Amino acid sequence: MKHFFALLAAACCALAINATTYTSHLKVVINGEVAEQDQVQVDVTQADGLYTLSLKNFCLSSSGVTMPVGNIEVSGVQGVDEYGYTTILFKNPVNILPGDDPAYQESDWIGPMLGEVPLDLTARFTSTALNANIDIELSMLGQTIGVTLFGVAPSLDGDVNKDGEVNVADINGVINLILAQ
Length: 181
Description:
Layout (H helix, E strand, L loop, with lengths): L1 H15 E14 L2 E15 L2 E13 L2 E18 L2 E11 L20 E10 L4 E9 L4 E9 L16 H13 L1
Antiparallel strand pairs: 1-2, 1-8, 2-3, 3-4, 4-5, 5-6, 6-7, 7-8
């Protein structure tokens, strides 16, 4: 009987965890210079009403040179559901961990060498899209690295609401998709 209750408790815990992986465009601003990056994957997990946001294998690219930074993760963040999306805010120091991209050795990742860095995160997301701003303060270098993650728009055909016709209702559907993001 004990095993049954343990299994039941484990199943309930598994159901309480909600995870979504978002594909986002990445824009990095350092000292006013903008570097557009490739698309990245961002994981958002909810468990027990608290959120974890993970940007894994974060790299800075500029002028053909790629600098591996590492994994940025914030956890235990309260979310606020308003206007059809969830917002999480985080402003605390974090340690950037080495990434796990096999293209780099553990010693290549510069994030862990920085120690604790002040991080300011604002993220808004729905079930299908995520927009986030992450500011990383590097006081020893007198720099702030601004990271912006913005959702990849879904591809749409003309009949957005799938009612068999292309009409004004489809335009309203597109507007609702934009507002939801």
